[in-house]
Amino acid sequence: MSLCATAKQEAIERITYRYGTAGRIETSYAAEIGNGHRFKGTVSPASPRALIRQVWFDQGRFRYLLTECVGGDCARPAGLAVLRGDTVVRNSSCARAGHDPAWFSEKLVEFKSSLETSTSKTGLLVFEDSDNMLDKIY
């Protein structure tokens, strides 16, 4: 799974999500200025002092939700959930390896302690208040 941004002279022109292997991409989604697609983001409190950072996109009846839990006691560091309505279709955990770059790069989005204080570095990722069924995922 990857979430990548393409920039030209510091301006982010495209954000792409890919799921699968190098030889076989199962799901992909791209937001760029001309196609009208957008990624959404929010941040929600979890256990004491923990926050769950979230980036997602909707494709058809499905929501693909990438999460990262920081601070406090997190049940898992990060994950991918696929939602359909009020049903969790898939809920996978991700583990951080020592060589990983930032999961949600501050060059793309700067998550703070609340939705109101968080900032996106591009119009291709917009903040929206959403529950995203975190009580079922975490």
From TrEMBL:
It comes from Methylobacterium crusticola. This is Uncharacterized protein.
